[in-house]
Specification:
Blueprint: H1 4-14, H2 17-38, H3 48-53, H4 55-65, H5 74-95, H6 101-104, H7 125-137, H8 141-152, H9 160-167, H10 171-188
């Protein structure tokens, strides 16, 4: 039976799929146990399934990044990686709570068949038009640019760094302008 270190070196150097499969078989249990410990089923809004689906990639990523010179066992490294992934998922939920467009408009949100709130991206044309009208009335062109770049240019949020570079501002400056005008938008929406 090959050691973890030998399998990791094969994955790093040769991108050996069989070695990776052996590592996944050996360490999946640790990963799943840690995820189950840190993301219990009762935590609403935490997507435990997504973290569990990332198991194979996380083990692969751990094998690539593992440094045997740090005198840590690979299983400990995987456990720590799983724990941080769970904590990051939890912190993401707190920092960026997901709300539906109905809640954004001040209405009560409907629940789906799982009991979780239905989350809609702002695809409601009426709400989008109202937000764009509010932005067009805004006297600060920087705010218009920030909102349009951040939310309307692509399907993903545009990073603050990219917006800051375009406007020749600091990242924090862009965030401050955004937050100031977001409060104004919320008053009218």
């Amino acid at each position: 039976m090959e050691t973890d270190l030998h399998l990791i070196n094969k994955v790093k150097k040769d991108r050996d799929v069989d070695s990776l499969k052996q590592l996944i078989d050996r360490h999946s249990g640790i990963y799943v146990d840690i995820v189950n410990k840190y993301l219990p089923n009762s935590q609403e809004g935490l997507n435990k399934e997504d973290v569990l689906e990332d198991k194979n990639f996380c083990i692969y990523d751990a094998a690539i990044k593992f440094d045997e010179n740090k005198k840590t066992k690979f299983s400990t490294y995987i456990g720590n990686l799983a724990r941080w992934k769970c904590l990051n998922s939890y912190n993401k939920k707190i920092k960026f709570p997901q709300i539906s467009i109905n809640e954004f408009n001040g209405e009560k949100s409907a629940s789906n068949h799982n009991g979780y709130e239905e989350i809609n991206v702002i695809d409601d044309q009426k709400s989008l038009k109202r937000i764009i009208k509010i932005l067009d009335k805004c006297k600060d062109d920087r705010a218009k640019t920030i909102f349009k770049m951040r939310y309307f240019e692509s399907k993903k949020l545009t990073p603050w760094k990219k917006i800051a570079k375009k406007l020749d501002l600091s990242i924090q400056g862009c965030i401050n302008i955004h937050n100031k005008h977001l409060t104004e938008i919320k008053k009218y929406v």
